[in-house]
């Protein structure tokens, strides 16, 4: 599950949409580049496979993405000094990464306690990547937390239960799964605070994806969504308009007439309306910790020829 905050950030700053690195041919990376891959993990695939967590979707980990970034630098920025200058002036968005490590473990029916054992390993991997980028000159990082997966259409369907005590009475989300997402955020923030003390010249901003999204489920009408917006816009069957194995885009699965009324697009992704509101909550507050300081932002950003990202 990945969130295209990088696209909304570029739009907010008046920059072109950030092109993907993988699969791009003759793309212009002067204003930024996106190394994200759908389904990517923080941990190496071989490590997860050794633990019985098998998945066919991708073999791209955070380490693979970081290596691709380092290998691409000569073509993006030229000399080592120019590249260091570019990295020093870049906003580096670290993910969201790590959620798929947990997803794939849930998909193969690993127990919650075993999945919890992955959490410190995922966070250490994210921390190590940030540390490496700091060594390369990185000074501004935006590091997202986990989503409230207890509100995910996929998990609401796959972990449906008749025990109503497992559901949040206000939102209808699964409380124990949301607690898992909260725990990830708490541990990640603690690690980011440790890094911030080690590198006081660096700006490390935590993007609270959990509360930015959960707020939409708490007060859906305030944001123009339907009441109890837990169903998928694009899906079929079941109480959440979702059936495992029936993918959005196939002949047997139709989308809703007005996606802007829905938080969830399909089983695992949000609608553009939901993503946009999340981005606004992070870029303009209150879901960035510490908040962004846009006082230096000017119309010059929109027309500048600078290669700063």
Structure description:
The chain is of the alpha/beta class. Helices cover 41% and strands 6% of the residues. It is built from 12 helices and 6 strands. The strands form 2 sheets. The protein has a 4-stranded mixed sheet with strand order 1-2-3-6. The chain is globular and about 60 Å long. Its main location: secreted. Residues 1-23 form the signal peptide. It holds the Pfam family Lipase_GDSL.
In brief, what are we looking at here?
This protein is α/β, with parallel strands linked by helices and 309 residues long. It has 12 helices and 6 strands.
Quickly list its features.
309 residues, four-stranded mixed β-sheet, disordered C terminus, 6 strands, two-stranded antiparallel sheet, hydrolase, globular, alpha/beta, GDSL lipase/esterase, lipid metabolism
